[in-house]
Amino acid sequence: MWQRFMTNVKNMLRLEKEYFKDAELEIAEKNLGLLRISSMINVVLLLFFYILTPFIVKGWTITLQHLLFLPAALLFFILSSLLMKSYLKSSRTITGLCQLYVVVVFVFVILIDVFPYPSAPATFMPVIYVALPALFILPFSHIFFLMLWAEIVFIVSVKAVKIQSMAENDIFNSIVGFLFALAVAQVILKLRSEDHDIRSRYKRLSMLDSLTGILNKKTCEDAIRSYLDVGIPRTCVLLFMDLDNFKEVNDLAGHSCGDKLLAETGRLLLSSFRPTDIIGRVGGDEFMVLIKDFYDSEDTLKKTFTTFQTDLVKSLSGNPLVKTSCSIGAVCLKKQVTNFDTLFKLTDQALYDAKASGKNRYVLRTYSKTERNCSGP
């Protein structure tokens, strides 16, 4: 039972770590929006209390602490509004601003709850503890140390200023609120990280071709466009591949055998190219690869093509009904600017020429005004 508990704790911590790493920008945007909303609500509530409290609590008078809280909240509203319009905002800046806001709120709450009314019970400290876990998306350690700091300052201030009976009551209530807030913070973080994990899984699944395990057509082409269509000189190679005689494989050996062939092709592509390369299935028996930042020689590239074609044929040698190979069209881009559509047309033509010259061949071309061709078996 203990082992299971520790496994669950480790899994929870892993999910939370992945959440704050993978969704850093998303979290920052949400926190900035929450900061703007909460500071605006703070301003409205303070004005409301300033007006309403004298009619409810007889003898109540506004203090310097109450007055200074309003411009402080207004300042955070202005800063968050300006930051939302800025293009220079960073997640670290936003997180720091949110944590500073929490510190400022705690400071004013302690000043208001402790010093003006030594004989009155603290009103706002327990409420702030309950609200904090839902206010911003922060790591549990940040929430813990922010609240621990506030709790220590509050206890020291209460013991120094208030009468003993009232101090004991305030300290007890604040400790209960502190512990309750920690539990709520952990539950909220757990739910948020699990929700992010589920959404990430669905997103990954929607990007992959279910049969081959590589990118689907839309995701692959979008990724290549994002790399090429930015107006920056690139050095890369675009490959367009087609399985030879794939229709005959389906007709003679059945679609299940054809599916196995596609899956094996996807596996070989993943093992033949780098994890940083873009690999996808873009048609029934068509595949595309973008080798990013390729600075090796053309001989290395030709060897890669030949090895892949040989490995594919070898992997199917056990089934006499499956007689297929792979034709490849490729275009090298060397520190040049182009877009996906232009490069794809050239690659498509290279593949057409490879298939026209026979089975299991490749055509390699260089993207330049004077085009150079290399063909191979």
UniProtKB/TrEMBL annotation:
Keyword Cell membrane (UniProt): no
Keywords assigned: Membrane, Transmembrane, Transmembrane helix
Residues spanning the membrane: 40-57, 63-84, 96-115, 127-150, 171-189
Which InterPro entries has this protein been placed in?
Answer: Diguanylate_Cyclase, GGDEF_dom, Nucleotide_cyclase, Rev_trsase/Diguanyl_cyclase
User: Which PROSITE patterns does the UniProt record give?
Assistant: GGDEF
PANTHER family recorded: DIGUANYLATE CYCLASE DGCM-RELATED, REGULATORY COMPONENTS OF SENSORY TRANSDUCTION SYSTEM
Organism listed in the record: Faecalicatena orotica
The record's GO molecular-function terms, alphabetically, read: diguanylate cyclase activity
Could you identify this protein by its name?
Diguanylate cyclase (GGDEF)-like protein
Give the Pfam families listed for this entry: GGDEF (PF00990)
Residue ranges of every copy of the GGDEF domain listed in the record: 234-367
